[in-house]
Amino acid sequence: MLKNLNIWFLLSLLVSLGVLIPIITVFFSFFEETSNYYEILKDTFLFEYIFNSFILLICVLALTFIIGTACAYLVSFYKFPFSDFFKWSLILGFAVPPYIYAFSLTAFFENYGTAFTILINLFGEGEYNKYIPKFDGLLGAVLSLSFSLFAYVYILSRASFLYQSQNLIDLGRCLGFSKFKSLYSLILPAARPAIVAGLSLVAMETLAEFGAVDFFSINTLTTGIYNSWITFDDLAFSNRLSFFLLIFIFACFIIENFSRKNAKYHFNSKGGFKQKEKIILTGKKSFFAFTFCFIIFFLSFLFPLSQMLYWTIKFPENLLDIDVISLTLNTIYLVLLSSSVLILFSLISNYGNRVSKNKILNFLSTISISGYAIPGVILAVAFITFIAWFDENIVKTLGFLSIKKIFIGSILGLVLVYFIRFYSLAFNGIKSGYEKINISVDESSYLLGYSKQKTFLNIHVPFLRNSLLFVAILISLEIIRELPITLILRPFNFETFATTAYISASEDLLEAAAVPSLFLIIIATIFIMLTSKYILREK
């Protein structure tokens, strides 16, 4: 037992326990007494909340899987017009938060909206509203979430496709498989860890989403959580609904882990790794590949960007009402600080799990990544609740000064809750990279006299370079567009583009909200463009 208590085990254990604190707070709140609102809701809308959440989840998972893997497959295995452009531009859709996409979708297709204005300018006066489709309700929510989140699946799937050997493709040919059968029987199963990691992130983001579903008036568990806290001031019941989300996520993890218990995702070949030879498409196939990728690129990025740009140009006076420099510096500061902390401790935790092979640690790590499934507003309140309890019952009892100001309404508290919220993103992204490192690599390193620390720094970290860059971008984009945590825990007068956009929208100044939304998208786009050539290189 003492042998297993190495520094990596202890560090990984501390990381997992630290992330679990707010989650444990939610768990114990499940047993607290609630108001009469719970009994009323249980007899009326609770089933609707659960049913809508389930349907929304299934639809978003199906659509993001199709879009994400299809795009990743096309740009990874084929050459066609602008394929090099699409391989990085398809990530740009991730720069648009679901609530901004939802607003753009509705504004464009609503009565007398942007689509109506375009038709008037092109063809003159007419009854165009009856011909313009309406994307609202569940359909609008599914589209908004899918086009905002499919990049999770695309990025991780493409990273996995990148490392698949030509030997695997040659195997399919030798067996007489068609391209479709090779894709279904060999390529997708080999990329399963990455695809599942991407879909897991999509699932947790969907279950935790509030802005888009509330905008379309969809009653889900998340809207129920928000309303029970904000409207009815029943934090205990909010935590109870959050507990239902945790149970759902845990069930998904257990099923997936059980299903791939004995599966292997690395391939040994006598010929070693062989670089893939991309197939050059011509004719109709080339046109189809280009058209498919362009439509996805347009719908996920160009469409909402154009809508925000249109409002900004139409109402230029709104540019003068915000401090662009201050908002930019605040946003980048949070991104750099939080990303560094998340990547560092996620690396430590993954390697600790790898070398310790401790079932308890593995279980705690699995539970700890569920924080991503809890709405940010609940995590923030759970964090405040824990700090208040710890301050009152531990700190003051020992005779120390209050620590509330250190953690509540401070950058430190904000970064800590970011860490809890996005730990799953960093942990799963790095774990997906670790799946490709055969354990024999570690054994060979030890035989050569390398210590665990030297193996980690000199072998694993360089191999995981691309995975770390993937993770860095995903975390950065999430933090840029994170709203409820920042609203609740930010220091006084500390604003970001996300909070500024929300405040304007909450005051019914929708045109003014377009300006910070546009800058939010632009900053996220810059992050992607600056790092894309390193992230997506094919050697």
Overview of the molecule:
- The structure is a single chain.
- The chain is mainly α and 539 residues long.
- It has a single domain, classed as MetI-like fold, CATH 1.10.3720.
- Helix content is 74%, strand content 1%.
- It has helices at 7-29, 36-42, 46-77, 83-89, 98-109, 114-123, 137-162, 166-174, 179-190, 192-208, 211-215, 221-230, 235-259, 283-314, 324-356, 359-368, 376-395, 404-407, 411-434, 439-447, 452-463, 465-481, 484-489, 497-506, 510-535; strands spanning 78-79, 279-280.
- It has a two-stranded parallel ribbon with strand order 1-2.
- The model is unreliable at 262-273 (pLDDT under 50).
The radius of gyration is 24 Å
Q: Order of strands across the biggest sheet?
A: 1-2
Termini separation: 42 Å
Number of domains: 1
| Structural class by helix and strand composition | mainly alpha
- Fold-level CATH name: MetI-like fold
What average pLDDT do the residues reach?
A: 79
- Give the SSE order as H and E letters: HHHEHHHHHHHHHHEHHHHHHHHHHHH
Low-confidence stretches: 262-273
Q: What is the approximate shape? A: globular
> How much strand content do the residues show?
under 5%
Residue share in helix: over 70%
How many β-strands, per DSSP? Answer: 2
Major sheet size, sense and barrel closure: 2 strands, parallel
